[in-house]
Write a structure and sequence with these properties.
Strand content: 15-25%
Largest sheet: 8 strands, mixed
Helix content: 25-40%
Radius of gyration: 22 Å
Number of helices: 14
Distance between the termini: 47 Å
Shape: globular
Oligomer: single chain
Number of strands: 17
């Protein structure tokens, strides 16, 4: 029996009725993400009390949901057989659960599978008209502490959207202005009158749509790197890569550690799929509150010797150059390609696994961290953040998140085949940065790397 027990489930509806007949069409990129789900967990410490009072938070959630009709609605098929959200007052499911251990013990001992118990999820049924695509789970720990879990379909939203929903909830609860109100205009990512599908990105998505990654038993481990350790490592590689970001460094660090465990492709190259948010990449930037998927996958390939024997600074610079090369045209061409897959009547092509088949590294460095309520929580900001993606297959997934410590600190969540995870957790280059794995601090010699 697990340590998480769901005690009750209720439905929270918006405080204002939704306008009758309102619908929200999902974009081509939304449809492509349909095989995946998102599961986010924000951990907060609160004053020890016999019970956490959910009612005030329920009221503020109801208020903020009046701004998110696409969240409270239900999926249905349009005349063209594409998914449409029927924006109604059906509401979202809110679960209340208790965890049979303390917050600190949970953070030290829970693995990725157990952490998913904090975001209980039901896959979409064949008929989703009464199924809630968004779920919030409030988990109480022994001795105080709360974990707020949010699950949703990737069909509806990307991690930025999911985080902003929780952030808007926290702002509503504190009676503050909503910093990033939702922007419901999927036409912002519509196909262009003159499409362009002759790009590297369009070719990559076409190949991805045909790939059949193996299904392996996966394991997830969380590495937390301090501001000081990331800063020190960036200083050491400064000569090779003076403009590196923490994401560039960590993508290179984990890629070089994992490449020797994986067989190169037939052309003797190792490949990394890089996923970034493109809201600010557009010439006319998409509002940060854009509700829907605005993420882009691109492929970086290096020769076997270059990645397995290269210095960390050199690989970091190659990652940086690749990320910097992604522009609006590459992102727009993918939208054009997805539109070109439409069949008779305008139905979008079938979704496919976007995370994989190559090792995939996702940047969520830009994520705005939702604060708690100072009147309830000892720490207004979370003590830990987790993000899981459902239905991941292939070589694995690396997610780089901001750290509650702020600054250059980062949280890295790695999902790999079990055998490779055991090897990764012994990698000296990674543990030289003294990450916290769970609540265990690893300390090694600090000899320079470059």
């Amino acid at each position: 029996m697990g340590r998480v027990t769901v005690n009750s489930t209720l439905t929270v509806v918006s405080s204002k009725p939704v306008r009758q007949g309102l619908t929200h069409k999902l974009s081509g990129l939304d449809h492509a993400m349909g095989l995946h789900s998102i599961h986010m967990v924000f951990y907060y410490r609160n004053n020890p009390a016999p019970s956490f009072d959910l009612d005030p938070f329920r009221e503020s959630l109801s208020e903020v949901l009046s701004m998110y009709p696409a969240v409270t609605g239900r999926l249905t098929r349009g005349e063209d057989r594409n998914w449409v959200v029927n924006c109604n007052d059906a509401g979202i499911r809110v679960l209340r659960a208790t965890v049979g251990t303390t917050l600190d013990e949970w953070l030290r001992s829970a693995d990725g599978d157990e952490e998913r118990d904090l975001t209980v999820w039901e896959d979409m049924p064949q008929d989703p008209r009464i199924w809630s695509p968004f779920r919030i789970q409030v988990n109480e720990f022994e001795g105080g502490g709360i974990a707020i879990g949010l699950s949703c379909t990737h069909l509806h939203a990307d991690p930025t959207c999911a985080t902003l929903l929780l952030k808007s909830w926290s702002e509503s609860h504190r009676r503050e202005a909503i910093t990033h109100p939702p922007f419901f205009h999927p036409s912002a990512l519509a196909a262009r009158p003159v499409p362009n599908t002759e790009t590297k990105s369009a070719d990559y998505y076409a190949a991805k749509s045909k790939a059949k990654p193996p299904s392996l038993k996966m394991a997830t481990t969380t590495f937390r790197f301090s501001d000081s350790s990331i800063k020190r490592c960036l200083e050491e590689i400064h000569e090779s890569c003076p403009d590196a970001t923490p994401f560039d460094l960590l993508a290179a660090l984990f890629w070089t550690a994992l490449a020797p465990m994986k067989s190169p492709a037939s052309d003797n190259k190792h490949s990394l799929s890089v996923c970034i948010d493109f809201r600010k990449l557009m010439h006319a930037p998409i509002p940060y509150g854009y509700f829907g998927n605005a993420i882009h996958f691109s492929l970086l390939s290096l020769d076997k010797e270059e990645i397995e024997n290269g210095r960390l600074g050199n690989v970091t610079e190659l990652v940086r150059r690749h990320v910097s090369s992604i522009d609006e045209e590459e992102c727009r061409s993918v939208i054009d390609w997805l539109e070109s897959r439409k069949g008779e009547g305008g139905e979008y092509g079938a979704p496919f696994r976007m995370y994989g088949p190559e090792l995939t590294c996702v940047s969520i460095e830009h994520m705005v961290i939702p604060r708690g309520c100072e009147a309830v929580f000892m720490d207004a900001k979370p003590v830990h953040i987790a993000c899981h993606v459902g239905n991941v297959e292939g070589e694995g997934l690396i997610m780089v998140l901001p750290s509650p410590e702020e600054g250059l600190g980062r949280t890295v969540m790695v999902t790999l085949p079990e055998e490779q995870m055991a090897k990764l957790c012994k990698d000296q280059a990674i543990f030289r940065l003294e990450p916290t794995v769970g609540n265990q601090q690893w300390v090694t010699n600090n000899s320079p790397i470059g």
